[in-house]
Specification:
It comes from Glycomyces lechevalierae. It catalyses: L-histidinol phosphate + H2O = L-histidinol + phosphate. Keywords: Amino-acid biosynthesis, Histidine biosynthesis, Hydrolase. One of its GO terms (molecular function) is histidinol-phosphatase activity. InterPro entries: Histidinol_P_phosphatase_HisJ, PHP_dom, Pol/histidinol_Pase-like. This protein is of the alpha/beta class. It has one domain: Alpha-Beta Barrel (TIM Barrel), CATH 3.20.20.140. Helix content is 37%, strand content 18%. The strands form three sheets. Strands 1-4-5-8-9-10-12-11 form an eight-stranded mixed sheet. A two-stranded antiparallel ribbon has the order 2-3. A two-stranded antiparallel sheet has the order 6-7. α6 packs parallel to α8. The longest helix has 18 residues. The N and C termini lie far apart (44 Å). It binds zinc ion. Zinc ion binds next to loops.
């Protein structure tokens, strides 16, 4: 049984009415950590000895076929197809080609990588924190989110706007405080809201409630929930707290289990 089947089994066990598979779709060649706390066997296995990783080609047809098999096998579960596109504003043609292969119900746009300041390729936040000031990394991340939202119309949900917070170097920089970046967060949220997109509440780490409040204040109309599970046991982790927080900030579920949560006030 493949991991998509196991994920469906888990979703049924949890009593979830719907599940969306947002498979990673990456085109940015980036440098991964080959040692230290953020090194991953999976990623280093795909990378050169120096850590340079060229994402493998995404098999859109195979993926959509696997979705259909899951739908046949789990008729009581609403199964959404989807992708999480990394940096689609840098790879418009490649992103469009994949989306043209079939129906993708939920398309997330995400920013994982930033260019290194010395022009030496791209890394995720941990590699950025090693080379520049922590506040500069977050500011640069949020500025690039604006370019992502303005530079691509291929996606409808902005994934994990708090991605660099996962790796925030607390020992050197102290606890993460979103208010130190209020202007930058608000600007990125406003641009996202004005583009008509939804905000993903990723539960990999809890989203700071202040950021959700700013989303509402800046005109955000919808939210969605993502557990960034990567394995069946992690599906829907943190959803109880995340949905409570969304309700407290004026968002409610739609009539269908696969709807985004919409703003009610
Ligand atoms: Zn992501």
């Amino acid at each position: 049984m493949g991991s998509m089947h196991r994920s469906c089994v888990r979703a049924v066990d949890l009593g979830l009415p719907a599940i969306a598979f947002t498979e990673h779709l990456d085109h940015t060649v980036w440098t991964v950590a080959v040692e230290g706390p953020f090194a991953s066997d999976y990623l280093t296995g795909l990378a050169t000895p120096e850590g340079r990783l060229t994402p493998p080609r995404f098999d859109a047809y195979g993926y959509l076929e696997a979705i259909e098999e899951c739908r046949d096998r789990f008729p009581g579960l609403r199964i959404l197809s989807g992708v999480e596109m990394g940096e689609p504003h840098w790879h418009a043609a490649a992103a469009a080609e994949v989306l043209g292969a079939g129906r993708f119900d939920r398309v997330l746009g995400s920013l994982h990588c930033l260019p290194l300041p010395d022009g030496d390729g791209f890394t995720e936040p941990p590699g950025q924190y090693e080379r520049r000031e922590a506040v500069e990394v977050v500011r640069e991340y949020l500025a690039e989110v604006v370019r992502l939202v303005e530079g691509s119309d291929a996606f409808s949900v902005l994934a994990h706007i708090d991605y660099p917070v996962r790796y925030w170097p607390q020992q050197e920089a102290g606890p993460f405080d979103p208010s130190a970046f209020e202007d930058e967060f608000r600007h990125a949220l406003r641009v996202t809201a004005q583009s008509g997109r939804a905000l993903e509440i990723s539960t990999r780490i809890p989203l700071h409630a202040t950021i959700l409040r700013w989303w509402h204040e800046e005109g955000g109309d919808a939210v969605t929930f993502g557990s960034d599970a990567h394995e069946p046991l992690a599906i829907a982790r943190g959803f109880r707290e995340a949905t409570q927080m969304a309700r407290a900030h004026g968002f409610r579920p739609g009539p269908n289990p696969y709807d985004l949560w919409a703003r009610v006030n």
